[in-house]
Design a protein that fits this description.
Order of helices and strands: HHHHHHHHHHHHHH
Largest sheet: none
Strand content: under 5%
Structural class: mainly alpha
Oligomer: single chain
Radius of gyration: 22 Å
Number of helices: 14
Helix content: over 70%
Mean pLDDT: 86
Number of strands: 0
Low-confidence stretches: none
Distance between the termini: 46 Å
Length: about 350
Amino acid sequence: MDEVSPMPSVSLWDRISNSKTLAWEAYKRKPISHWILLVLSSAAMLVAFPASSLLSRVYYANGGTSKWIISWVAVAGWPLTALILLPTYFVFKTFPTPLDLKLTLAYIVLGFLSAADNLMYAYAYAYLPASTAALLASSSLVFSTLFGYFLVKNKLNAAMINAVVIITAAMTIIALDSDSDRYGNITDRQYIMGFVWDILGSALHGLIFALSELVFVKLVGRRSFHVVLEQQVMVSLFAFAFTTIGVVVSKDFQGMKSEAKTFKGGVASYYQVLIWGAITFQLGVLGGTAVLFLASTVLAGILNAIRVPITSIAAVILLHDPMSGFKILSLIVTFWGFGSYIYGNSSTPKDSS
């Protein structure tokens, strides 16, 4: 019997060379405008989302108290997405997706859930340092993975399950170190509330992702750039309506004048924080949407992983957030979990559409 010759080993240099070749071929297949838009979209994710998180914390640190106002700011910028959506009908020579009763009800439900999600995150940023809140919010990946598996029947592999376990462990590390990063004016009860609301908000965020994907699969039947923008506009519009009702009922609109007068930095600073909070959040959403369709979910996942340490480090530098050894360890473990998920997602075979 003839012996089977062993497969030749591939050196690290050969792998790097092959990666360079593939990257160069991918670059040549797309026009330069594609890569410029991808770079701008990636920058929007890495800058706008952390900026929005930091501005929420600045609002509370400088005298703001309303949870409804911050929730309202998160969706008040929805007209920006609408302004981006309208030209796409002419660019792609397509028409708006027809709205039937089921699709409208789906958007209303998603809008209500988004409004509730924003309110939960507002409580989190009111009671937690921005760096801690950002780390806890990364647990939304765990919930989106689980809900995607049970509701949308997305595939799971060992690396993705490993990511769920790792990120859960990172959240546990933060919980064990609650005494080191609590602000002096925050009580134990408020800190626990912030922690719980952040985790619940992340769980709801994961559910919204899964339900949004279910809407594409069951009701829309197609997925393109303008269709995703349509959903974003409609969901944000209904979330804006629900949140506006909450602000009116709580009479927080009337309280904005007195809140602005006592805000550190003055009235102008107060409204600048709110306006830029609305703008940066929508820019982050638009950037994430563009990355998904210009590149892949893998790149979106990588950028999402990178923005967690960016937010945490920026909070330490700009807002002087406490950064203990446990939080650094949690940050490293979270990044490891994201890496495991990205590897698992890239190695999972995709069904052809």
